[in-house]
TrEMBL record:
This is Enoyl-CoA hydratase. One of its GO terms (molecular function) is catalytic activity. PANTHER family: EG:BACN32G11.4 PROTEIN (PTHR43459:SF1), ENOYL-COA HYDRATASE (PTHR43459). It comes from Caballeronia glathei. Coiled coil: none annotated. SUPFAM superfamilies: ClpP/crotonase. Pfam families: ECH_1.
Length: 273
């Protein structure tokens, strides 16, 4: 396992093990709020990932009882938040700060897994939605709670939510600011699995490691194909699939994978003789 220090100290912890880069939000005193410091630390870490060939999957988690409680309401009131200043300043700051997180996470070549414990609300809910796969503990709660503060999602959460749960349910969750528990999130497809709190890290890491074990080039291309196919026509998807498959069929990874498969099959046959 290798650990990479972070410029923001302990706000965000980073380590790599078996191809899985684990990013841990570590500001329990404010619920891992996406304040200026956390936003900068997370943005920097996320923006480096596509260039790292040692990373095959990203696991985003927290070290505390909550995943991320969104923006810090006290900072909003005091005027020290990302959303202080004139309309023009706030709009520009959103593009240059929080939107960096959105662009980086949505632009990952590698898959991402999010382990959600406790609250994932407001921008924290959006942060979880930006990941490819979410695993929740039984204590997880989710909410698009912006309207409670007279706001909307300023970092693109509506785009992700509608694609995960559908237009009508996305609108319902947004307009009611309803808090939903892990089981309700499972029913809506927001999370793929709910596990006991003490099993969350083990289960999420296991999933991330299983993903990371795949041939790295094929893994990145498989994610890209699924992502692009979500908004493409069948004809376009078939063209992309043919191009990607041709590249992989002619590549070293495929030939090595076939060789390993045949060796394993031969070993199984010998074991039963």
């Amino acid at each position: 396992m290798s650990t990479h220090p972070n410029d923001a100290g302990s706000l965000l912890e980073s380590s790599v093990d078996d191809g899985v880069l684990t990013l841990t939000l570590n500001s329990p005193s404010d619920g891992n709020a996406l304040n200026v410091a956390m936003t900068e630390a997370l943005s920097k870490a996320l923006e480096q990932i596509n260039d790292r060939r040692d990373v095959h999957c990203v696991l985003l988690r927290s070290s505390s009882a909550h995943f991320c409680t969104g923006g810090n309401v006290k900072d909003m009131q005091s005027g020290s938040d990302l959303m202080s200043g004139s309309v023009e300043e706030v709009r520009d700051r959103l593009h240059r700060s929080l939107h960096r997180i959105t662009r980086a996470l949505s632009g990952f070549d590698v898959p991402s897994v999010c382990a959600v414990n406790g609250a994932a609300v407001g921008a924290g809910c959006d942060l979880a939605l930006m990941c490819d796969i979410r695993v929740a503990s039984t204590k997880a709660v989710f909410a698009e709670s912006f309207l409670r503060l007279g706001l909307v999602s300023g970092i693109g959460g509506s785009w992700f939510l509608a694609r995960i749960v559908g237009y009508a349910r996305a609108l319902e969750l947004t307009l009611t600011s309803e808090f939903i528990d892990a089981e309700a999130a499972l029913g809506l497809g927001i999370v793929s699995k709910v596990v006991p709190e003490d099993a969350l890290d083990i289960d999420a890491r296991s999933l991330a490691k299983r993903i990371a074990q795949n041939p790295p080039t094929a893994l990145r291309m498989a994610k890209r194909l699924v992502r692009e196919a979500a908004d493409a026509s069948l004809a376009t998807t078939l063209e992309m699939a043919a191009s990607v498959q041709a590249i992989l069929l002619c590549g070293r990874e495929h030939k090595e994978a076939v060789g390993r498969f045949l060796e394993q099959q031969a070993a199984k046959k010998r074991a039963h003789m």
